[in-house]
Specification:
single chain, mainly alpha, Arp2/3 complex 21 kDa subunit ARPC3
Length: 196
C-alpha cells in the first residue's frame, strides 16, 4: 500500500489534531455510551456469535468493535476498551483470564495508531485493519494456546480458523463501523466516517 504524499499526509495529521481537540470536549454521556457498547458487544459475542458459523469461522464481533472505536477515537480509547471488553469476555466464557484482554488491548492500540495517518474518506482502511488485526490476534492466540499445552495442527488452525475468521470479520467491518459511528456520534477523532 503506497504511502500518502508528504503534503497530503500533513493535511490528514493537521485534521487529526483539530479533531482531537474537539474530542477532548466530549459529552459527559460519552463514557456511558462506550460502556453500553461494550456490554452489548460482550453479550452478542458470548451468546450469539458461538452459534454463527460460516465455513468453520465464528465472527469476533468484540474485536471488530474495539478496532472501530480505536479508529474513531484513537489508541488510548482503543486500548482501554480492548482491555475491558477482553476481560469481560474471558470472565463470561470462563477462559484463561487475561488472554483476550491482552490481545484486544494490542489490537485497539495499534489500530488507533494506524488510523492517525489514513485517508478518512476511504472505505479501505477499516476493512484492511480489521482483516490484519484479526490475523495477528488469531495467530497470537494460537501461539499462547500452544504454550499453555493445547495441541493442534498449525495448518488446521491457519486454514480453518485464522483465515476464515479474518475474512468474516472483514465482511462485518463496514456494518459494525456504521452502527458504532451512529451510536457514538459523528464527531470522530480524525474524521473517519464523518461528514466533511
Amino acid at each position: 500500500m503506497a504511502s500518502a504524499p508528504p503534503r497530503k499526509r500533513l493535511k490528514f495529521l493537521h485534521r487529526n489534531e483539530k479533531a482531537a481537540l474537539s474530542a477532548a470536549h466530549e459529552s459527559s454521556y460519552f463514557p456511558l455510551k462506550v460502556f453500553a457498547l461494550i456490554i452489548v458487544t460482550v453479550v452478542v459475542q458470548t451468546s450469539l456469535a458461538p452459534y454463527l458459523t460460516v465455513l468453520g469461522a465464528k465472527p469476533d464481533v468484540a474485536l471488530v468493535m474495539v478496532i472501530c472505536l480505536a479508529m474513531m477515537r484513537g489508541p488510548v480509547w482503543g486500548a482501554s476498551v480492548g482491555f475491558a471488553a477482553g476481560l469481560l469476555i474471558d470472565i463470561a466464557l470462563f477462559q484463561t483470564l487475561g488472554i483476550s484482554s491482552f490481545l484486544f488491548t494490542l489490537a485497539g492500540y495499534f489500530s488507533g495508531r494506524y488510523a492517525e495517518g489514513v485517508d478518512p474518506a476511504s472505505w479501505f482502511p477499516p476493512v484492511f485493519i480489521v482483516f490484519v488485526s484479526t490475523l495477528v490476534v488469531q495467530v497470537l492466540n494460537g501461539v499462547i494456546m500452544f504454550l499453555l499445552g493445547v495441541e493442534a495442527s498449525a495448518w488446521f488452525v491457519i486454514l480453518r480458523i485464522v483465515l476464515p475468521t479474518a475474512v468474516l470479520n472483514a465482511l462485518l467491518a463496514a456494518p459494525i463501523f456504521v452502527v458504532c459511528r451512529f451510536w457514538l456520534g459523528g464527531d470522530t477523532r480524525h474524521g473517519l466516517f464523518s461528514e466533511q
